[in-house]
Amino acid sequence: MSTDSEMEKPVGGEAASPAPKVPPPPNGGLHAWIQVLGAHFLFFNSWGIVNSFGLFQTYYETTLLKSRTSSEISWIGTFQAFLLVASGLAAGPIFDRGHFRALVIVGTFLSVFGMMMTSLATEYWQLFLAQGLCVGLGTGCLFLPSVAIVATYFTTKRALAIGIVAAGGSIGSVIYPIVFYQLQPRLGFPWATRILAFIILGTLSVSILVLRTRVPPAGKSRAIFDLAAFRSATFDLYSLGLFLSFVGLYVPIFYIILWAEKHVHVDAGLSFYLLALLNGSSTFGRIIPGLLADRFGPFELTIVCTVLAAVFAYVAIVIDTLGGLVVFAILYGFVSGAVVSLPSAVIATLVPDMSLVGTWMGMSFCFAGTGILVGNPIAGTIIDVEGDRFAGGFIFSGSLVMAAGALSIAARYLHLSEKRRAR
């Protein structure tokens, strides 16, 4: 395994002339932490939007799209989440070529425009195009730069910095649902959604102003895929594990409001706050494991949190009280936040050249995005909301996430073997 200083050097044979000398990552300082702030707002408006879909799922099922099934409605949110992650496949090489500012500007426009169009939508296909497609593409342009740019500013504090960035997704997924929930009864769905769009525009303007790249762009154009990544068994196993974990991870998040109302008979005004509590808890799940990962390793923390997320999904089967729901929301929010935030730090330790970090992240995140795409629609066919049958969906979630934990353990073992052989 290459050292961090070696990772800053270009891969031999990629460029005819030597690349500019890059100073070592600062691992702190005002400029580096300002990048964390700017990237924090990118996460705030990418995962913050996607993690808020549980509220929209409930609103659509009970009001706007009552004639549609849970599975059909969930396709809007899962397609949005799929594009958020899978867009990294194209965004990665664009970032590596030095066009991160164009990505952020395009992402800002698409996210704001998509939410504005959502505010005007009344039909399923309109919501799918506006919220699923347009907002999904916009958030996809924001997500990868948010983690890739920070990874180049830190080595010893990388997991912590990425954790703080990723906490933006949790904070956004608390603020956006609360704003919508409070304003929708007073102003109606259109204006409540437009106000969300204005918040997106304001916060992303900060990111556009402050973010700066540190590593010079690649010396020549690269393909979307770096096929060398697939020659690493560690990368392959870990990416497959990401796919499986994201198939199951979002099932409890998307269905916690409906589960609380139908199974535990929680009042609608209170059940909403369970989603906010889950997302708020994931803020700590993105920062604290990131802090621990800088000491014990991101791989190790990923394995622990993935296995715990599977266990909590199984435990959900027997929960039938409000107190149990509250505890579940706190614990599941914490570990799911870590599962979402730590992969960026793991991939940054696997890539042999930091000028390829965007490409490798994009490739691996494509696996995760595909998992999100198929997971909730499958769970939607298993879960019967009106019949109060949620257990099958939670078993499906726990089983897939547990399998992901097993693959992460295997990937960690291979990674250690590769490092021993390199010595």
From TrEMBL:
Annotated membrane topology: Multi-pass membrane protein
Location(s) in or outside the cell: Membrane
Compositional bias ranges of the Basic and acidic residues kind: 1-11
InterPro entries assigned to the protein according to its UniProt record, in alphabetical order: MFS, MFS_dom, MFS_trans_sf, Proton-linked_MCT
This protein's name: Major facilitator superfamily domain-containing protein
Chloroplast as UniProt keyword: no
Source species, domain of life: Eukaryota
Region (Disordered): 1-22
Transmembrane segments: 30-53, 73-95, 102-122, 128-153, 160-179, 191-211, 237-258, 270-289, 301-319, 325-350, 357-378, 390-414
One MF annotation (Gene Ontology) recorded for this entry: transmembrane transporter activity
Domain Major facilitator superfamily (MFS) profile: 32-420
Keywords assigned: Membrane, Transmembrane, Transmembrane helix
Cellular component terms (Gene Ontology): membrane
Similarity remark: Belongs to the major facilitator superfamily. Monocarboxylate porter (TC 2.A.1.13) family.
